[in-house]
Write a structure and sequence with these properties.
The complex is a heterodimer of chains A (about 375) and B (about 325). In chain A, the strands form two sheets. A six-stranded parallel beta sheet of chain A has the order 1-7-8-4-3-2, sandwiched between helices. In chain A, strand 5 and strand 6 form a beta hairpin. Chain A is built from 15 helices and eight strands. In chain A, helix 3 runs antiparallel to helix 12 and helix 3 crosses helix 13. Chain A has about 375 residues and is of the alpha/beta class. With about 325 residues, chain B is of the alpha/beta class. In chain B, helix 1 runs parallel beside helix 7 and helix 3 packs parallel to helix 4. Chain B is globular, with a radius of gyration of 19 Å. The chains are: A alpha/beta (about 375), B alpha/beta (about 325). Chains A and B meet through helix 7 and helix 8 of A and helix 3, helix 4 and helix 5 of B.
Amino acid sequence: MGLFERSACALTVVPLADRLSCMPIKTIATFEVKSIQIINEKGEADEGLLPPLSEGEFKRFFETIILARTFNHRALSLQREGRIGTYASIWGQEASQIGSALAFGDGDWLFPSFRESGVFVARGYPIWMLYRYWAGDERGMQVPEEFNLFPMSVPVGTQIPHATGAAWAMKLKGDRKAAAVYFGDGGSSKGDFHEGLNFAGVFKAPVIFLCQNNQWAISVPRSRQTAAETIAQKAAAYGFEGVQVDGNDVVAVYKATKEAIQKAYSGGGPTLIECFTYRLDDHTTADDSSRYRSDEEVESWKAKEPLIRLRIYMEKKGWWSKEYEEGINRGAQEKVDSEIKKAEAYAPPDPADIIKYTYAELTPRQRRDLKERGWQS
Amino acid sequence: MAKLNLVQAINQALSEEMERDSNVVIIGEDVGKDGGVFRVTQGLMDRFGPERVIDTPLSELGIIGSAVGLSAYGLKPVAEIQFMGFTYAGVEQLFSHASRIRSRSRGRFSCPMVVRAPYGIGIKPPELHSESTEAIFCQMPGLKVVVPSTPYSAKGLLLSAIRDPDPVLFLEASRLYRSVKSEVPEGEYSIPLGKASIYQEGADITVVSWGTMLHRAAEASEDFDCEIIDLQTLRPYDEEAVLQSVKKTGRLVIVHEAPRMAGFGAELAALVAEEAFEYLKAPVIRVTAPDAVIPMARLEDYYMPSQESIKKAYEKVMKY
């Protein structure tokens, strides 16, 4: 009986007819959530929605997905061989990461979580540095000056307000830029999500919230993160637009992100994009997902993974051939091989690094710590 | 020279630094039109506009978390949290991010931000408005913790805090806001972080304290020859000043209003035990609150170290 609850004179229950005559109930807010797919899993495109992308741009999506996937696959092997530590696989989520990351300009700032290898690879981040990082070397996140990429954030969802803050600073300084933050369905349950999105709405900050809803937060399904039908609709409560896209459709992700960036640049404020996708691998190399989800479920999503549809679509356009893909694969393997060599040949970190990046300057105690341990500063 | 109270001195520091550096912005709850719940930011929105003195949603995590992004991008946010007890909602942002972005990125990014918060007992407020949990924050590498004791030092320390390249928690004793005055010169002067100040020279007992308790420790010292050290910065703190004084007096009394258990006094006592043991003529004594939750108004006078308890500590170390 929503009618009774919403009434301003609902202190006592009175006959409906009397109440309507004294205080009509009005609908003062509604919302709708759009879900966008441009290329479906069979490789069929909605030509009306398809943005004007060239062959070269399609190939860039395709080749970046292959490179990221090769990076990812090798990371899993290296972990099994004990050459890197615990690693969080991106398999299945490449379109969400790459379609969005390729949409940003160099001046935009990105705030990734720990499951964002595709974002780093798409931005051109040195691959050997990623392997160093996952091998337990902080220097892998000593982000080179030319990248406006924050080091990956481990505590889930806590990076969300950082992007809001950076975007807010862009607005206060009058810079025509945007910030974006990557997080998952699990992250949307955190207070950081609420406070970060709420600030962004209030200050109309040029920020894009990229939620990869990969259906699982370790073993807990999306249905346990929220009773809401979508994560996208949460934006409505913060006063800005939320949209769901097929997160395995690189073109849909790219288009939605581009539009959100344009909106941010032109003062239109934030956007929440829910990329509806699936984590095909375990949560990390330390997880066993067979404990909590069925093979059938995983198999059904394998048919929907991003590369299959892209391949079919590009073949129809005459942009794909077996030889082309083999060449791309070979190139990616060679690239990743040489990056691994570089990562493993790199000099081990200096123990003094533990201390010397705590503050801009060493404290007297830290100078003593260095000296007592015999570490060079 | 004008005599200012703590509120006026901090207001002047903010105002002057905002005048000098257009990157400084104030964010927080009620900091704009209302001038803050203690009126510390009074008049600043009129002077610098709502784009630099910004009322935010009621959202401590949001304030500290967005300050991470604001500062990484190049602004210098000075965030006001209304009471120290409310910083707890933003502690993860301070501990897991602000204080370690520099280390995590091996120097590429940093968070030069200040979080100002009133702390401590003595204004008879509701629950959680009197916290004095500075030691928790001192455990976190990458963060600096400053507690001014006088209006003069508050201004100079705040200038240094705003200019510091790393995040600073700036704790203002709410009991002192309007109860102490000192001469505060107009214009620029800064007091370096990490340096203590000798509040009162003496020969027999070294007393180390900060904030409200510094004044109580001084009041209790009338019949003793105490050297009173105003620590000013708790992290990183001035070990040399403490050691030098203890080597001279041979006695150390630490006074703080936080509970004794793992309080900052424990750090000071351990330092002296390690570095100046052979100079000690008496055991180190900590005068602190009991190991219990801070009470509300009716019992707060019992909780805070009293002048008598401090005097007793002075008497005790003088017996050796």
